[in-house]
Amino acid sequence: MRFGVSPAVLAAVLAALFTTPAWAQDLGPHFKKLKEGIFVYAQNPADSNATIILTSEGVVLIDSGHRPPDTVALAGALKKLTSLPVRYLINTEPHTDHTTGHWMFSPPAVIIAHAGATESMKQGLNPERVRKIIAEYPDLKEMKNFRPVTPHIEFRDRMTLQVGDRSFEMRFLKSVHSEADTAIWMPKERIVFAAASVGVKRFSNLRPFVRITDTLDAIKMMRGFNPEIVVPGHGAPGTVKILDDMEKYYTLLLERVGAMVKQDKSLDGIKKELRMPEADDWQGKDRFPNNIEAAYRAVTGK
Ligand SMILES: [Zn+2]
């Protein structure tokens, strides 16, 4: 060895070089770099993800943090990354755990969501809830400007946004979680933001209007993009396996509930009997009964 460095040391140095985040500033332990200029904030697997996307013409955010302290952390990271303004903030869904943080970025950010989001957000961030949120964080100085911020633009079905060198293809996801779920596909970067249509080892809360068949269609559509990275609404970003796992789970659930319906079992009977050992290590087991209800609706057409 000419420099007297052992291969093992050299390998370790090289490994460190390639695994150390390439950005100069440390954004903190909850940030993960997905690609050059794209950082996801994932504080806790159960909490919502928020993503910072730098472009040559300013920043695009996807969702704005689970709770106000997350939003403040997101704003702090942004300051370290760029002096460019947040141009757009795209909502994957209108629920408060994705939208409460808008006040920190808008203005100047223009908020984009699917039709129905504004109505839903007005209900979610009603005056009573706003008072509660403010009371919850007496020591957070940024809260003094807190107010609910609803979308400036609502699109229907699909919309393409071009900001600097990046493009964002938004697609409505019908009946997967809320009134206004949106998948966002970045074709050059090969990243799909899947909203709450899928979870990561976690049962989704399937409200009465949610249709598993629409969710399976949404999964198929997103897989059709051939994404390299899948960022769910909640849970660690990963590969297309996130879509595959969810598809497998719902397919099995429909099969098993369907077989029991054929044996004339009642919904209550199915809830008592049905086991899903494949999802034994999943979080949010209290939602399993409403998953069975959704499957029952799907197979009986009720
Ligand atoms: Zn939600």
Descriptive notes:
It is a single chain. α6 (212-224) packs antiparallel against α7 and α7 packs across α9. The protein has a seven-stranded mixed beta sheet with strand order 1-2-3-4-5-6-7, covered by helices on one side. Strands 8-9-10-11-12 form a five-stranded mixed beta sheet. It has helices spanning 7-19, 68-81, 96-99, 117-124, 127-136, 212-224, 241-262, 267-273, 288-300; strands at residues 31-35, 38-41, 50-55, 58-62, 86-90, 110-114, 153-155, 158-163, 166-173, 181-186, 191-195, 229-232. A hairpin with a 7-residue loop joins β9 and β10 (181-186). The chain starts with 6 loop residues before the first helix and ends with a helix. The protein is of the alpha/beta class and 302 residues long.
Strand elements, count: 12
Terminus-to-terminus distance: 74 Å
Structural class determined from secondary elements: alpha/beta
Q: What coarse outline follows from CA principal-axis ratios?
A: globular
Main beta sheet:
7 strands, mixed
The overall average pLDDT, rounded, is 92
Beta-strand content: 15-25%
Helical coverage, percent range: 25-40%
Rg for CA atoms: 21 Å
The number of helical runs is: 9
What pattern of helices and strands is seen along the backbone? HEEEEHEHEHHEEEEEHEHHH
Topology record:
Elements: H1 7-19, E1 31-35, E2 38-41, E3 50-55, E4 58-62, H2 68-81, E5 86-90, H3 96-99, E6 110-114, H4 117-124, H5 127-136, E7 153-155, E8 158-163, E9 166-173, E10 181-186, E11 191-195, H6 212-224, E12 229-232, H7 241-262, H8 267-273, H9 288-300
Parallel strand pairs: 4-5, 5-6, 6-7, 11-12
Antiparallel strand pairs: 1-2, 2-3, 3-4, 8-9, 9-10, 10-11
Helix pairs in contact: 6-7, 7-9
